[in-house]
Specification:
Strand content: 5-15%
Helix content: 55-70%
Radius of gyration: 28 Å
Number of helices: 26
Shape: globular
Number of domains: 4
Mean pLDDT: 90
Number of strands: 10
Structural class: alpha/beta
CATH class of the largest domain: Mainly Alpha
CATH topology of the largest domain: MetI-like fold
CATH superfamily of the largest domain: MetI-like
Bound molecules: spermidine
Length: about 600
């Protein structure tokens, strides 16, 4: 009796444990799906059920364009990888040849090779072949990883394949092709279809490899979702993620049923529904952002230009602006150094301009096409990183500092606050080598352009000691994380914090007393830009006083444009976080190119981030 009760207890315990595991796996997905139906924009309050975010998706041209790219890539790569994968599986099944086992294992290798390795090797290969990054390179990459799955699935089916059926067909006079089409392929059809569905689902879902091999105009749905997340989480993202999740789950379910030998009509329902969820919004949606028209390809920091401003440029020049976003100079450098990225305009910080200039990756500007340069304050022109503005024009500048919730922290005036154990778990640091090591260097009495390895080593130690207190490293929407109340103090850049201060009077911004950095971000045209003339037109457009004032007023970063500043409302012109008073400017130092020490900064920062 007691034994039976103990057995029941164990069963109950195991059941609860299993429930806990399933909850851990699926609760985030359920929350995401539920929030996609929430009337409120905020995830903190439930204001009622709505389909509004799904309807909004249909009008979002960028999402529709990304969906279109995803469908094209998934369709083409599925057809190619299914053909190749089936042919390879049949060859391995039919023919005995030397090293067959090895060759077969080579097909399975991409399944276990880390995605990041496949991605970076493909980038190198494309650069060597001078292939421009775009839809073609994405399709080739997707074929490269999905063909293995097709081989594995079809091969598994062929293992149990009764070869006497083929022999019987041959005995009855069928030739090899007839036997293939009349006997072999029909018998393998469920496995081939399962492999194809798997390849399609993997392609629709892929982020890592695609992010390396996509160029402008080939943004797929996962890349679009990530880019939307970086400009603030909205319920629209929850809606599109829910759709993607449902569609891929249904396709995988259909593949699984086919593999298990379930009748085709049983598998057709989930497969059909999965395809409908993906194709439906595309068919119902508004016009896509693409088109055969001329386009300007812009690669810029997130939170650095408003869609309304881009719409003005589009209307004036009758072109489309494709925008890709990044959140670190290192990401920009990597993209341009890999080559063939297809961008017309990029936005490096001053020290990244110097690096790109050294590597001859920027196109010399035609200053005669930039008459509005006359509006820029001469204090920002002809700087050491780009003498004579041969390669770049100043776009925005700003300071790095700490924003904090006064009610939670009290007044803050030192970088030490970000190392204060009282705020453990409530601290956000930028995800940026120069800025984080810079703050640690300042606490050590050094400057933000330090090149001495010993001082940099000490800065690394300081950041390692701080790590247990840090909730997150974030260079994208650090202002939003502070506004949401998830952290109380955040290192970050002035413009986004100036915006946050206007939205919540509890938020204050300070440039610490030990000093800090300031940055000067520029616009430049990469060598090989497909539309250099249009790129010059864009550079001149953003220097028009009215446009420069609009960009400053919407983004709240500081404009170097003298004429624009005069047009700004007093609340922005006199905002101490946007245009800091002289005493603050005296304690900030411009981040400069640190030459060979750049590699050391990157290494130390990677060590900090990867430490446990
Ligand atoms: N979200 C836009 C932030 C731009 C900051 N650029 C300067 C970086 C200097 N390390």
């Amino acid at each position: 009796m007691a034994e039976a009760e103990a057995g029941a207890d164990v069963k109950r315990g195991l059941g609860l444990f299993a429930l806990g595991v399933y909850l851990f796996l699926y609760a985030p997905i359920v929350v995401l799906a539920a929030l996609s139906f929430n009337e409120s924009r905020s995830s903190a309050t439930w204001e009622g059920f709505t389909f509004a975010w799904y309807l909004k998706l249909l009008q979002n041209a960028q999402v529709m364009q990304a969906l279109r790219s995803s469908l094209i890539v998934a369709f083409v790569s599925t057809v190619v990888s299914t053909l190749l994968g089936t042919a390879a599986a049949l060859a391995f099944h039919r023919h005995r040849f030397r090293r067959a086992a090895w060759l077969e294992a080579l097909f399975a290798l991409p399944i276990v090779v880390p995605e990041i390795v496949i991605a970076s090797s493909l980038v190198l290969l494309y650069a060597a072949l001078s292939l421009r990054l775009g839809l073609v390179t994405v399709v080739l990459a997707h074929v490269a990883f999905s063909v293995s799955y097709v081989v594995v699935v079809v091969r598994a089916r062929l293992h149990g394949f009764d070869r006497t059926l083929e022999e019987a067909a041959m005995d009855l006079g069928a030739g090899p092709w007839r036997t293939l089409f009349a006997v072999t392929l029909p018998l393998c059809a469920p496995a081939i279809l399962a492999g194809a569905l798997l390849a399609f689902a993997l392609s629709i879902d892929d982020y890592v490899i695609t992010s390396f091999v996509a160029g402008v105009g080939s943004t797929t749905l996962p890349l679009q979702i990530y880019s939307m997340v970086r400009s603030g989480v909205s319920p629209e993202i929850n809606a599109v993620s829910t759709l993607l999740l449902l569609a891929t789950s249904l396709l995988l379910l259909a593949a699984h049923l086919l593999e298990r030998g379930r009748p085709a009509r049983l598998c057709a329902a989930p497969a059909g529904l999965g395809f409908a969820l993906l194709a439906g919004p595309f068919l119902l949606g508004g016009p896509s952002a693409a088109g055969g028209e001329r386009a300007l390809n812009l690669y810029i920091w997130s939170n650095y230009i408003a869609p309304e401003t881009l719409a003005k440029f589009e209307a004036r020049h009758g072109v489309k602006v494709n925008v890709d976003l990044y959140d670190s100079n290192e990401a920009l450098l990597a993209k341009l150094q890999a080559g063939n990225a297809n961008y017309d305009v990029v936005c490096p910080s001053n020290y990244a301009v110097a690096i790109l200039a050294r590597q001859d990756l920027l196109l010399p500007l035609d200053l005669s096409a930039l008459p509005n340069l006359a509006h820029v304050d001469p204090a920002f022109l002809d700087r050491p990183h780009d003498p004579g503005n041969r390669l770049s024009i100043p776009y925005f500048w700003g300071t790095t500092g700490i924003a904090y919730r006064k009610s939670r922290t009290g007044p803050i005036d030192s970088w030490n606050a970000l190392w204060d154990p009282r705020f453990a778990g409530r601290i956000l640091m930028l995800d940026d080598a120069r800025e984080t090591l810079g703050a640690a260097l300042l606490l050590d009495g050094r400057g933000v352009n330090e090149e001495d390895p010993a001082a940099l080593g000490r800065a690394r130690q300081r950041l390692l000691a701080q790590k247990p207190l840090v909730r997150t490293y974030n260079s994208a929407d650090f202002d939003q994380v502070l506004l949401a109340g998830d952290v109380w103090l955040a290192q970050g850049w002035s413009g986004q914090f100036a915006k946050a201060m206007d939205q919540d009077p509890d938020i204050e911004y300070v440039v610490p007393k030990e000093g800090s950095s300031f940055f000067l971000d520029s616009l430049a045209i990469p060598r090989g830009a497909p539309h250099p003339q249009l790129a010059h037109a864009f550079l001149d457009f953003v220097m028009e006083p009215e446009i420069a004032a609009e960009i400053c007023a919407t983004m709240r970063y500081s404009t170097p444009n003298r004429s624009a500043r005069a047009l700004l409302p007093a609340a922005i012109r006199d905002h101490p976080a946007i245009f800091p008073p002289a005493d603050v400017m005296r304690r900030v130092e411009l981040l400069e190119d640190v030459g060979e020490a750049t590699v050391l900064y990157d290494r130390l920062w990677t060590e900090v981030k990867s430490a446990r």
